[in-house]
Backbone:
């Protein structure tokens, strides 16, 4: 069984074997969650200029990062669940939800470098690279687990994103509102009542 | 006799890249922390003022000139010998102008040698560099790297507005110490050498808002992005030597400076004449044959430094007449 750094390194290199190894690991779910929380923290730190702009105090800053990391992991999980739905519709049957989630979790390994978006002047460019990198890793993961071609994997990921957006704006609206209020609470702002613009 | 193994060049390159990125990652935190109020109030921060004033206090000033050094400095008092001589020349050319020197690479106005955690390190680096001792080159490079990232912070669209607000507060405080009237209105010229050009260009709008004065800028081989706004900006004179590769690379580095990007603030200001690029002949960016070299002379006689100082003085006089 490859070590965790080897597994993450292989995922960063877009090696399909990494995703196959992740599925068969007994601790795959825990590892995927750990990667997502760490990636979420790094991503949130990369985007933390907003917190500074709002003049958030250090304690609230740390709390906001923690909340953002959990919400990041949750949003990726929703996307993974949507991908499982799309896959089931496309291939009829397909892998277990747990396997799809661990693969999508590992595919977010490039977001561990989200911190780099803090870099002055070059940060936005790093952000774009990480987005494309994560998308490609997710496509390789989807290819591996669903036996898709690259084009099919990209279409499935796009469809999964549409499903997750649709869910977020309809039956998932209360959860979206909860997430927004949680973020505002962590930052020390008053919560909103109602759904906002949606 | 056993010989020491040579370091792996690949590993060294990775370590250098990692150090470069780490310095970049840490660079915005001074500005962000200052903006968020994590380092105390502005008054507390300004107590450690590093600004220096060269002035004849007995006469009222007709204009104020703020000199922003290149990225090789660690504090206002560590200006290089050539910069000192240049400022003295400016002072003699502009007797009715008050010349203020500010260390522009810290919005909290903490000279690197006055910082709580790293002061000892920067003092070491400065001593190595000035004494031309072993590792002087590395020390100079580290100072340039640290301050160069601050130039990038000012040029960044996310951090720039905060950095520039901090710079404007710093300059205003230094100007007030030099006797700048509360009512404002007296012409202000920011002279930015190298990376100081970016700091000057960024601070122009918020400084104009604070003082009510239009801000003129002289860039001496400035490395600067297209400004985010032209608000409050008077004239910009960009002095450039033909052998100055640093300024040329700087212009290529920022897309807003490319002639193709006609809608950028820089190119709009070039088109309406607000930005003027002045060719200073065969000058280099720094050192011998640089803008501040008082030994190398032009074919007409004056030294490179004299020519640079005259160009700066010309804009200051024009600002006074307007």
Residues:
């Amino acid at each position: 069984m490859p070590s965790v750094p080897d597994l993450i390194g292989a995922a960063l290199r877009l090696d399909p074997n990494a995703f196959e190894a992740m599925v068969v690991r007994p601790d795959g779910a825990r590892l995927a969650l750990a990667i997502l929380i760490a990636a979420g923290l790094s991503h949130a730190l990369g985007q933390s200029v907003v917190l500074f702009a709002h003049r958030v105090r250090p304690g609230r800053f740390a709390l906001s990062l923690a909340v953002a990391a959990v919400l990041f992991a949750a949003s990726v999980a929703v996307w993974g669940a949507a991908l499982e739905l799309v896959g089931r519709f496309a291939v009829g049957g397909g892998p277990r939800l747990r396997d799809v989630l661990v693969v999508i979790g590992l595919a977010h390994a490039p977001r561990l470098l989200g911190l780099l978006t803090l870099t002055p002047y070059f940060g936005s460019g790093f952000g774009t690279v990480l987005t494309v990198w994560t998308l490609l890793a997710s496509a390789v993961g989807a290819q591996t687990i669903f036996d898709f071609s690259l084009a099919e994997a990209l279409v499935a990921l796009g469809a999964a994103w549409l499903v997750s957006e649709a869910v977020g704006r309809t039956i998932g609206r209360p959860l979206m509102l909860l997430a927004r209020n949680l973020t505002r609470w962590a930052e020390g702002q008053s919560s909103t009542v109602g759904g906002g613009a949606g | 006799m056993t010989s020491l193994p040579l370091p792996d060049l690949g590993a060294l390159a990775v370590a250098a890249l990692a150090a470069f990125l780490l310095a970049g990652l840490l660079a915005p935190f001074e500005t962000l922390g200052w903006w968020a109020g994590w380092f105390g109030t502005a008054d507390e921060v300004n107590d450690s003022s590093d600004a220096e004033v060269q002035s004849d206090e007995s006469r009222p000033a007709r204009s104020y000139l703020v000199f922003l050094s290149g990225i090789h400095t660690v504090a206002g008092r560590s200006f290089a010998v050539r910069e000192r001589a240049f400022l003295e020349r400016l002072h003699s050319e502009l007797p009715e102008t008050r010349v203020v020197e500010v260390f522009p690479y810290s919005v909290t106005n903490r000279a690197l040698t006055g910082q709580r955690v790293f002061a000892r390190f920067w003092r070491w680096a400065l001593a190595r560099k000035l004494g031309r001792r072993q590792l002087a080159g590395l020390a100079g490079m580290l100072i340039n790297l640290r301050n160069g990232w601050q130039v990038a912070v000012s040029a960044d669209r996310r951090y720039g507005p905060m950095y520039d607000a901090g710079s404007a507060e710093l300059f205003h405080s230094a100007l007030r110490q030099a006797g700048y009237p509360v009512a404002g209105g007296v012409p202000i010229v920011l002279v930015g050498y190298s990376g100081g050009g970016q700091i000057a260009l960024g601070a122009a709008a918020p400084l104009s808002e604070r003082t009510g004065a239009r801000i003129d800028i002289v860039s001496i081989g400035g490395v600067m992005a297209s400004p985010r706004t032209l608000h409050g900006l008077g004239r910009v004179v960009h002095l450039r030597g033909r052998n100055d590769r640093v300024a040329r690379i700087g212009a290529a580095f920022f897309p807003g400076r490319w002639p193709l990007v006609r809608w950028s603030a820089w190119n709009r200001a070039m088109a309406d004449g607000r930005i003027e690029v002045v060719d200073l002949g065969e000058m280099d960016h720094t050192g011998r044959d640089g803008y501040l070299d008082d030994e190398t002379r032009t074919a007409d006689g004056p030294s490179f430094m004299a020519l640079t100082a005259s160009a700066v003085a010309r804009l200051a006089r024009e600002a006074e007449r307007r």
Chain B has one domain: 49-321. Residues 74 and 112 of chain B are 5 Å apart (CA to CA). Residues 42-49 of chain B have pLDDT under 50 and may be disordered. Residues 49-321 of chain B form a domain with the Rossmann fold fold (CATH 3.40.50.1820).
